[in-house]
């Protein structure tokens, strides 16, 4: 009887309240899952700390770059290379958050489009006039462009150092390297400042289930990143999954030749950590996809999706660990292992894009049309 | 029996309910077209995509490109003409043809609601909906107070079929005993004020909604038919459709249904509505002389007409049961699923990618769906076998034209149904490029690993 009365009350409420597109903060807390806590955990413990760390890394890179440009020698070159790699690893924790200012600025497109276009870089250097933020320069900026500037200007380190010291237009090379790093730093500062001063509040308070609410957008970003940025760019494209032949030159950090695996593993770890709500700076975990799926499963009584997804991430990781440090080399020598790693990553796409999305009832790539 | 039928067919009734039905139908359709236009969906759904998914036997229907706007314009204007009862027969024929053509351009956008509109407008071609309260009356200087009973009853019957069949299809173990898919859909409405965070999360509520939804669909036609329960039934109709409108993105349809069910009320209600409307129209009617009222609407070609209506209804009653010809689980293979009033019945999602292989060299690569399909098309394609087959052929033709030889197309497809874990959907060893669309069972769909009992 009580339930009937409550149902009737609900009915009355429905009839009286009108439809609304974005109700914002939810009322009451009898729901066992606190979505705002999830958003807060994402923003405060994962996203902002990761961008802060990237910002610090880029500062170090910038300092080392200045030292290198002031006195180009093997020691200062090595120092820039080390700080470049550190920042590049941290970047793997940031690339997936294509939301807010990052989305507005096309941040990821200005930071990590590879393969980088060496002829564009050379013509920029030669002309001396360029807008690094321009879409046309997306493949001539960011980490991949710095990779080229630090490792591939010539065949040996000695010759590379010569380019920065005694080549006819060595100043232009110096300026371009400097501009590249400064641009990355300034973009990151802009994104970070927007998060801390403004966007964080908007982000954690957008708790509705609409196409433009935080959780829905970030879920889409997360899956898109996993599918495109991680699975396709780092593995599928070089391994020739989408083409008739493999491309050994389309790997991440192609010119460095030794770190494509470490970057990929870092990216997978970042993905899994985000899925589990693990803090960037500590081992603590908070509300996340993992705990949300666990909550939904108490309603649904289905398979333990969180465990299945984590297992799949682990399987993929173990396959990646079998690969060479250089994915270029791996593609050339034993591409089948590269494809096996890809297949395991792809299995997780199915779990994320089909099962997780269905459980959360979030529309992927929001389709703006009527339903049945 | 035959005499009974004959006397039924000769019975007449006040023409007002059908006239009001016509007015609201026309206005609602015109609004729907405007809304569609306003949202930019003509561009997005019918002009932007490079490729459209076709209905079997209707592959010849093509998108008209920018002329789609003209098509929608014709559709909207004819809807307005229907509402006014101006050149009604021509208007309803044009409406039926243009609306149906639009729907046939791409089955990605298929909705039961749209099919309902096509079917209803087809039926309305044969009904004297302009007998009274129409501009045609004024022009003809004749109006008819009485029309045959069966003309109004045929609309009631069609509405009844839609509801009742929607109810029957809910009698299945997923809907009733697992409260699926409401168990997925309702908890995600946590952002509704007041009830989002508690009621929507409750197990018993999911079951209550599932069961009451089934009972509503099954019994509402009868409650509407019965004079004593009619008002109560109409309140239910309003509540049910407003409720679903709040919960789900179903556009104009709830309002259309609410207005449509008015036809169950007796003529006095409709005459009152007409009186009110006439009152509102007064400023425009000063110089118009009232048409001469005649009694019974004369049907000139009854001998052809009645068999058409009869065949139409036999088809409507039998066609939704065509799924019985297929052995596999209906929800899984969707053989005989569409055009059968299975409304909001399952939550199905998939991920399907295509391997383009060379049978001689064994070389292969995967096609990028986003190169060919919109997000909406990809979503629909990923979990429906006829889409998958059609798209596989499209890819095959595309890459053959690009010079690829000995081409084979394989689907790697995973689908999740009503909260079950996703499983492989299409046999990955079958070259879909060699398979042909037909009404035969598609044996390249992998079997469903569970059992859903019921209709």
Oligomer: heterodimer
Helix fraction of chain B by DSSP (H/I, runs of at least 4): 40-55%
Q: Could you tell me the number of beta strands of chain B?
A: 7
Radius of gyration of chain B, in angstroms, nearest whole number = 25 Å
Portion in beta strands of chain A: under 5%
The CATH class of the largest domain in chain A: Mainly Alpha
Topology as H/E string of chain B? HEHHHHHHEHHHHHHHEHHEEHHEE
Total tally of structural domains of chain B? 2
Order of helices and strands of chain A: HHHHHHHHHHHHHH
Mean pLDDT of chain A comes to 90
Summarize the biggest pleated sheet of chain A: none
Portion of residues in beta strands of chain B equals 5-15%
SSE order and pairing:
The complex is a heterodimer of chains A (372) and B (455).
Chain A: H1 2-16, H2 35-70, H3 74-91, H4 101-105, H5 107-111, H6 118-127, H7 142-151, H8 157-165, H9 170-205, H10 214-236, H11 260-276, H12 289-300, H13 305-321, H14 327-360
Helix pairs in contact in A: 2-3, 2-9, 3-7, 7-9, 8-9, 10-11, 10-14, 11-13, 13-14
Chain B: H1 2-10, E1 12-14, H2 16-38, H3 41-47, H4 68-84, H5 88-105, H6 112-125, H7 135-140, E2 142-148, H8 149-169, H9 173-177, H10 182-185, H11 203-225, H12 230-247, H13 253-260, H14 267-285, E3 292-296, H15 302-318, H16 330-333, E4 348-358, E5 364-366, H17 375-382, H18 385-401, E6 407-417, E7 423-424
Helix pairs in contact in B: 2-4, 2-13, 2-14, 4-5, 5-6, 6-8, 8-11, 11-12, 12-13
